[in-house]
Write the structure tokens for this entry.
Amino acid sequence: MNLQTPLPNYINNVWQKSVAAERLDVTNPATGEILNYVPLSPGDEVHQAAAAAAAALDEWRRTPPIQRVQYLFKLKNLLEENLDDIAQTITLECGKTLDEAKGEMRRAIENVEVACGIPTLMQGTNLEDIATGIDEFMIRQPVGVCAVIAPFNFPGMITFWFLPYAIACGNTYIVKPSEKVPLTMQKVFQLLEQTGLPKGIVNLVNGGRETVDAILEHPDIRAVSFVGATATAKAIYAKAAANGKRVQCQGGAKNPLIVLPDAEPQFTVNATAESAFGCAGQRCLAASLALTVGSARDWFTQAIADTATDRVVGNGLAEGVEMGPVITPESKTRIEGFIHAGAEEGAQILVDGRHPSIPGGENGNFIRPTVLNGLEPQGQIAKTEIFGPVLGLIHVETIDEAIALINSGSYGNMACLFTGSGASARKFRYEAQIGNIGINIGVAAPMAFFPFSGWKDSFFGDLHGQSWDAVDFFTQKKVVVERWA
Ligand code: NAD
């Protein structure tokens, strides 16, 4: 599947060139090569997409759910057939390894599979005889036109936390991908087109801030899903709510792992490295802090340093590469600044990933895995999202101290515990003020049939992405009280 240049929008089932005055380069982060150009679509193109989606709504809503999901069954098959091609595109524009890109699309497909169950998931409830001869029903109806504003780090998967559920529930949809990685959605929309979905059900509008503002202001767009940095999430949540929209915003993270002395050493070190350095640390579920308790420090510290040093870094398309570049030169500079700041706050740079020599990667945004030992727990770096392959080590004496430290943080996306003790696991699961918990798991990513449950500054809203939360988000409940003489 080839892509047009510059990238078109997809509105009312027509690929159309944007009239945008401004466009940005889409760059391969491993090589610096320009791959394409993305338009910063003006608000008018959002209005066109919203008009198409609004016009399609009535007929789509009246299409029986069992017929609506037939398009998703087709989409699932098309995604399977084109998985390698889409994964290649993800690696090209985002930098992660091909295996990571394939894993991302596997998670996307799982959401399509779960949404195929909408004829069951969307059912309401009822009770006969709420009073003598009177029955009451709760039925679910679609919300209307909905939209997603997506981040750069999972160009394929994140839209799928929302879109399949939205359209299966009878809504129509607009996708605004990250302007840094717009190529993957071009491919996904080519497949959506092949499913034969009627006009206006799914629309794609590329762009940046102005495009987002138009989504947040448009009166016909009833619900907005956002995933991205916490500062953006807060602003979008406030603006969408002020405009009367249903809104869910998933934000940033600073994810800690606790390592207890009774954890299995090699397994724990490997899982930590995969969590901290997988996807070059650009996962919202990447471990950023390892809190070693008591004697765990003795076996963990050198082992994680060795594992970080050994990780193979390079172009994600190359065989054997375990970690790709970060997304932009600005990200690389920002991450290097955080490493410097961590050292200024007193940490020892146990493994320094700055200024690596990567054969063929001279123009790429490469940083090797970095380990900061003895990070100041109350310092800025222990509290700031780095979003790069940097793991800070903090040493404490008790699990209570570790949990208190975790609960003092402002984010609540993920925390994990490595232990051989069921009692410690239960205590942690019970007391941690965090929405996604891992026990002897390094990346506690909820499967499609569970909600993605960030807390605190990692989430603004009530209903999360995926599974039954998505069904609640994309339906409005109607109650009917009925008596027949
Ligand atoms: P970002 O907030 O910079 O951008 C996300 C989206 O918002 C993009 O589509 C962008 O065009 C738009 N945007 C950015 N600034 C805007 C503004 N001022 N006004 C209107 N729209 C704006 O995020 P990013 O850098 O693309 O993604 C990385 C962030 O996403 C990290 O913080 C990461 O933790 C977070 N993330 C969170 C989750 C989660 O589930 N909680 C998942 C993935 C990523």
Remarks:
- The radius of gyration is 23 Å.
- The CA atoms of residues 83 and 106 lie 8 Å apart.
